[in-house]
What we know:
By secondary structure, this protein is an alpha+beta fold. About 40% of the residues lie in helices and about 30% in strands. Helix 2 (about 40-50) packs parallel to helix 3 and helix 18 packs across helix 19. The longest helix has about 35 residues, at about 115-145.
Amino acid sequence: MGKPLRVLIVEDSEDDALLLIFELRRGNYAPVSRRVETADSMRKALEEEDWDLVVSDYVLPGFTGLEALQVLRDSGLDIPFIIVSGKIGEDTAVGAMKEGANDYLIKGNTSRLIPAIEREMQEAQVRRRKREAEAALVRSERRYKRLVAAVTDYIYTVTISEGNVTRTSHGPGCLSVTGYSDEEYQQNPFLWYQMIHEEDRPAVTSLTEELRAGKEIPSVEHRIRHKDGSLRWVINTVVPRYSEQGELIAYDGLISDISERKQAEESLRVQSAALEAAANAIVITDNNGVVLSVNEAFTRMTGYTPDESVGRDLGFLKSDRQDPELYQDLWTTIMAGKIWHGELVNRRKNGELYPEEQTITPVLDQDGQIKHFICIKQDITERKRAERALLQNTSMHKEMEIARQIQLSLLPAAPPLLTGIDCAGRCVPASHIGGDYYDILLHGERLDLVIADVSGHSVGAALIMVETRSVLRAQMPALDGPAQVVAALNEILHDDLSRAELFITMSYLSYHRTSGRLRYSNAGHPPPLLYRPDEERFFELDAEGLILGVQRRVAFDEPAMQVAKGDLLLLYTDGITETQSPSGELFGVQRLKGVLAREHRKPSAAIIEAVLDTLRAFTGNTTFDDDISMLLLKFIP
């Protein structure tokens, strides 16, 4: 006969549920199950029946394993929750465990199912027993609280015959102190002895021998075990009674419950240990500011030992860096019974100055008079240093933001208004400043387009980008065609790029507006894309050429093609194609072509925004790891 197990299965596949039941039966369980597929049916099942276990698929139509976990948590039930799914990755599984799932298994590989269930059932049982014990303790405390009398002392008598205890009697207070009534003591003369804590019995029983010897014995503090199982501390004062022959015939005892006092002493010891272990310096003074005690942290911070501090006015730490008005405000505040909190500079024993954050709290007696001050001190040297660094970083951040605005202002503010051409551009830097650059240069019937990428995202890359723009705008009117322009840039910028250990990739295109002829050159840059919707065809405008800044006297090819009405031309940087998904997959050229083909009917600016939205969805982030720039032209029919 298998072990009974009530399992709620959250699963849309009846076959998978049957396989799970089969595994449970193989694991020597006799399962009683119910399968649900929605949140509402799961809530209903949890309300109508008691369950030992919930096993859930991770992906269901309109419902997920995490939502099922939330339904269970909302119910307030402590039931093990195990995910069994074939569509869950390791990261997702770890996330589910963090949300509260007890375990996860892969469908088809359920060898861990039975061990996982047994483990989780045991842990659930431990938690259940703990809750029951805590509830029982609460009930017990409520029950016995009314029995605790205001007077916790009581008198008992022990009668002795021929050296043996023959009878004990206990006063009315015994019930509140020990939990036993006098009748129970009379029924069992050894009950008192049995109540004494095992470690304390030798000291207590030795009293009888000393009494027989006629010695006066002092009061003894020892522990007894209350009827409810708890330990109580008592002080036991014994007064002997002797016969005329001097034989011990009985002794009377006074029992006082001192458990609260012992607890207070223990609490005081813990508090004292906490003060010594505290990371912050703690000083206790009288109402005149004279030091009564200091902890170890005070010595570490100031260099003064307790012997060097106690009995002195706390002002011995003062430096000459505070105005007298600060101390006047401090004393006015604390003498009014208020807490003072502030920062000041004090002096260590070795003369070193240090910044300190200090809180002084007045301690009042029952009449509302100030008896002591508790002063908590913290050395804030490192915090002050961090604050200064933060201010410097903030200043640098502002300067970088200014640099970013200047750099963006060098890009075309708006595309030129060109008959028959819809043009748009966009640059999204990965950080404050980047190395991407694009431009539109109009020179008569000639429309030049350029996009470039300076390696890196540093200030140096931004400066090279500005230099490139300046040289290009100065040289372009005097040169004929993309190949001459790119070659001239390479010669002029070569030395600066070499010294800066940077390089530039660039695509340069020249479009003749009357003839529709497009010439282009490329210096190691991703080839621009020309999309012809009528043919559903892409042309990659690539040409032979070397990256700028690698060597001098480089020859660049200059192919040409005829642009047709309706064509779409995109210049872009590799920040698009090299964008990665969370799994490390590259976005690539094919996905970019897919967006252009899908969105080509929209205006240029809307197509660029569609590319950015697709990249954000692909990465799952709103920011990118590399600069992204695009320049897009639509040749309107």
